Amino acid sequence: MVMTKKSVIGVSLGGKMLLVGKVVGQNVEKSVIKKINNSDSESEIIKEIISTIKEVMDDTVIGIGFGAPSLVDVKQGIVYSVRQIKSWKEVHIKEILEDTLNVPVYVNNDANCFAIGEHYFGKGKGVNNLIGLILGAGVGAGIVFKSHLYSGSNCGAGEYGNLPYKKHDLEHYLSESYFDNKYGFSFDSLYKRAKNDDKIALAIMEQYGNDLGNAIKMIMYTVDPELIIIGGPIAAAFEYFKISMWETVLEFVYPHSLQKLKIEVSEQKDIAILGAAALYFDANNKIMIK
Amino acid sequence: MAKTFIGIDLGGTKILAARVNQAEVFKREYRFLPEDNGDENVVINIMIEVIKTLMDETVEGIGIGLPSIVDADEGIVYDVQNIPSWKEVHLIERLKPHFDVPIYMNNDANCYALGEAYFGQGIECEFFVGLTIGTGLGAGIIYNKELINGSSGASGEFGILPYKDRTLEDYCSGQFFDTEYGINGFEMFEMAKKGEKVALDAFNIFGYHLGNAVKMIMSTVDPQRITIGGSVAQSNEFFKEKMWETIRDYPYQRSVDNIQIAFSDTNNRGMLGAASLCFDSKSVNI
């Protein structure tokens, strides 16, 4: 018998973009990026997803992982109220894809995909208890506990953005829109200014680091992980808020947790696809035979 | 012969202990601690004595719950409330020479949660949180009957989360009544039972803060059920309604519809939970 290389497809649905890739071993071998017209109907977008998956699908594929910025019923594979896609109120995506493509499909939210993806393919390899924290349009985290994704009873675990903080909640101070609302700069322009040594931009980044440090302490008081991996667009500017972040984190009251804690930035470029694909490995809890 | 386990619940003023298995309590024991409890050996010796009275050939493990910061990996307990001499006690190292069975330890909130998971209201719950409300606010997070310990035992410390101008514990423990009204929680409960308005209002406000605490727990670990124990839980009839009203505006309706909140019906869960550390086979041991 000839052993064929097995592969898993990762699908990452965003509000504007669809990423689909075939994962073999530790790598994405073939990937497709499509723009999504987020005002399309539910079925048009489903059709687009299926045809895009078929572009990378072949008979080595043993499963599909699907990640979306939404609430998810993990067991039934239903996504609810997907961010920016108005027509996607309740889509039984697992059932639809399994019926069409005849392989098992696993569904979860984007932050959980990120966390389990880092565990299988990124900085979290070999670390049993970690948090993947996404800083971007929203603020959310995925929790990996004893090498398994901990999604919670309603897939609502790790929603640290909801925690009350100062006058609002953590998401208010840590998502991209904060820079626009508070300072009138987009994150991108602020990042550029910081790179040019702009004093104001550097001060804003420093304040951001303080707030992020407080968020990290809140993560430690709740699940006390060994490693926190930061991802999402804001992570690119890590060097500008890293020091003030650590200064705040060092106020944490349990010195033993601090000694063990590592905070890193994701460097895995394909993490959206890999993270979705990692849902397959988490569900089956096995390492792919290369 | 059936295996049994010894559970020890060390409080600031007393030790509660029992020999149990997963279905039954066989023998109980307790000791009050001397008021001026002297150097660290005094309490250690009392603990050894209590264990010895419960010990027999069926005992396969000893579990200890402690009201403080615990390094379960190293078997060290730090800064125990009401026992000033227990600044840093290498407890397992001290007990080991006396007993020929594995010894486990954890903080009291984690033991409470485990006790509920094995003996009480957390049975058959995949995602469970046991919340204790007394002089402080503590919690243990249980996933498939397994304690989420964190890298150094700081998990479940919801009480330390910033809340309003202070921390969640300031508003969601017995301290709230002392600080805001100068009346302790026990007296406040008595007053509420008599229908005194100040007490009814105080519990109402307490219920609001506790509802917010529940939402913070939902945002972070999303349990299927939270069981609330500890001395303040007994007065739940006076704060339950406001607590639920506050929970209902949580942004995810499905989570609000699904969350179950129960109140503990006994005060022996901490001791049973300490024993459960032994059969929580995946728990960190020494």
Number of helices of chain B: 10
Q: Estimate the global geometry of chain A from the Cα principal axes.
A: globular
Structurally, the number of domains of chain B stands at: 2
Most residues in contact, chain pair and counts: A-B, 37 and 39 residues
> N- to C-terminal separation of chain A?
16 Å
Q: Biggest β-sheet of chain B: count, sense, barrel? A: 5 strands, mixed
* Number of helical elements of chain A: 10
Pattern of helices and strands of chain B: EEEHEEEEHEHEEEEEHHHHEHHEH
Please give the largest β-sheet of chain A. 5 strands, mixed
Q: Indicate the percent of residues in helices of chain B.
A: 25-40%
Beta content of chain A comes to: 25-35%
Going by CATH, the homologous superfamily of the largest domain in chain A would be: ATPase, nucleotide binding domain
CATH class group of the largest domain in chain B: Alpha Beta
Strand order of the largest sheet of chain B: 3-2-1-4-8
Word description of this protein:
- The complex is a heterodimer of chains A (290) and B (286).
- Chain A is α/β, with parallel strands linked by helices.
- Chain A has two domains: 7-113 and 270-284, ATPase, nucleotide binding domain (Nucleotidyltransferase, domain 5); 126-265, Nucleotidyltransferase, domain 5 (2-Layer Sandwich).
- In chain A, 39% of the residues lie in helices and 26% in strands.
- Chain A is built from ten helices and 15 strands.
- In chain A, helix 3 (110-121) crosses helix 10, helix 6 crosses helix 7 and helix 7 packs across helix 8 (238-249).
- The mean pLDDT of chain A is 94.
- Chain B has helices spanning 40-54, 91-95, 108-119, 168-171, 175-181, 185-193, 197-221, 240-247, 253-258, 269-279, and strands spanning 4-10, 14-20, 25-32, 59-66, 69-71, 76-78, 88-89, 103-107, 127-133, 137-143, 146-147, 162-163, 166-167, 225-229, 260-263.
- Mean pLDDT of chain B is 91; it is low at 282-286.
- Chain B contains ten helices and 15 strands.
- In chain B, strands 3-2-1-4-8 form a five-stranded mixed beta sheet. In chain B, strands 11-10-9-14-15 form a five-stranded mixed beta sheet, with helices on one face. A three-stranded antiparallel beta sheet of chain B has the order 5-6-7.
- Chain B folds into two domains: 4-111 and 268-279, ATPase, nucleotide binding domain (Nucleotidyltransferase, domain 5, 2-Layer Sandwich); 123-263, ATPase, nucleotide binding domain (Nucleotidyltransferase, domain 5), CATH 3.30.420.40.
- With 286 residues, chain B is of the alpha/beta class.
- Chains A and B meet through strand 12, helix 7 and helix 9 of A and strand 12, helix 7 and helix 9 of B.
